[in-house]
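Now for a specimen:

…
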Amino acid sequence: MKTALQKFGKFLSAMVMPNIGAFIAWGFITALFIETGWLPNEGFASIQPFMLSYLLPILIAAQGGKMVGGERGRVMGAIAVVGCIAGAPGTPMLMGAMAMGPLAGWVIKKFDQAIDGKQPAGFEMLINNFSVGIIGMLLALVGYVVIGPFMAAILAILAAGVQVLVDHSLLPLAAIFIEPAKVLFLNNAINHGVFTPIATVQAAEAGKSIMFMLEPNPGPGLGVLLAYALFAKDEMTKSSAPGAIIIHFFGGIHEIYFPYVLMNPVVIIAPIVGNIVAIFFYLITGCGLVGSPSPGSIIAFTMMSPPSQMILTWLGVIIATAVSFVIASPIVKMSGAKNLDEAQSQMAEMKAEAKGTAVTAAAGGIKNAAEVKKVVFACDAGMGSSAMGATKFRNRVKAVRPDLTVINTSVDNIPADCDIAVVQTTLVERAKKSAPQAQMVTIGNFLADPALDALYIQLTTGDAPAAATDAESPLASLPSTVAISKKILVKEGLKLNQKSVTKEEAIQAAGELLAKLGYVDASYADAMQEREKLVTTYMGMGVAIPHGTTQAKGTVKKTGIVLLQYPDGVQFGDEKAQLVFGIAGIGDEHLDLLGKICETLEDENVLDVMKTTDDADWILKQLS
């Protein structure tokens, strides 16, 4: 149950968190320019209703659609939620966006799966555009008739329930659930998934809402950290607390104090009581914030406070800190707690569970490997290296794990449902930003890397890596005429028995040949050189596949591949490449041939011959 709640909470918060900047902009405009704001201005204040009614729901729905259905899901979510907005005029449709966005993404994803491989050649763009337009229109109508009014009713019920808690002074009791949930990493889910939508509606009506103050108050956590800074027995823990205080209080990173609670779970009483008292104080003084203070720092807390209530807002933080400190201090003094390292390890595991992914074991293992459903091979452009790597690994693993999806993409567009991302070392940081929920597997090359052998073992039986399968590549289900009808690889694109040159010269020669055959503009060769500087395109097994950067796709006229053979090899770092495939691709048109290349590489005898033969017709036959 806890895991299910964590995953659901993560999903909700993941729709809101990327758009927090928009919430902050809306909050600033509200705080500054409404009638009771810092700088009242009727004209500027008129901006905030449009942001609340249209901008925020559309951003949330687009993000939810993208999480489920990729870029097409993003457009679908934005279209569909407008129907919800129109169906419940006057009601901010934030919760409706959280429902409609993922629904729209799921619908277009299922549609794409149903027509996969069935689109007539040449009609792909037409079908893709009209399917989003027509299905998006239908969902917008459903949103207008059903989802918008339904969500408006739900929001009214929730708001009424909150009002009951406020009227009967019971709202402080919410802290009994809030503080333990924060330590279980449900804080963002509760704050942005539940409190923020309700608070936003209240702030739109009353100019402020106490609901914005329930979870982000830095006082309860600050009290715990002060107690450890003064009274902890373990010197390392004691000396680490002051730095944690700065990060927590001024940076708003509440996760920094979670390990200190986990060191001695009884300490959780302190922030609970501290927050109860602070919420009660805010209730009796009529305090509230005008927008979501994210992150939950004293700076954001102050900026979102109405000017007339700033001192009261600070006082509530001070009260929460004092109460939490008084309760935590004797517990810390008497505690024989585990050290901070152990608590941080426990926290890392809990945080990974909350994100829906496992912590990598010390030896590089993967926990709950059977639960891994999607592996994504990612390179800079998602054009060549990752496509070949994904195809080879898919062929290898599918006989044992037919349930496992193995795809490739660019490192900046890793899907939200990715469990494991396979990337080259220099791209890891970009991959983490693109898919923070995914476990990273770093490799040197995409075809023959020990990390891929380890990944195979971890995802299957734990035995030695299985022999490569002779089963047909999934890419072979693409029309067999692609390579011929599109002239992706032609005899004129083969240059055999070339003399050894430098890596840069080999890449330049491939780029110039692509341009000579009309596949690309002359500037594409420069983009290929830039791509090589980012991370090597050497794939292993004597094969390199240089190609342009993502930004160079506009210089590609049509999909094409050329092959330059260097029997004595071209030095790519510490390795030599005898086969240099130059690639220029539009969409997925080149993947069929890349899949065939991967199948060819499975046969070492064929690969060895291909590195030295002067028979161009034989090579074309092997790759056709």
In short: The radius of gyration is 29 Å. Residues 124-167 form the longest helix (44 residues).
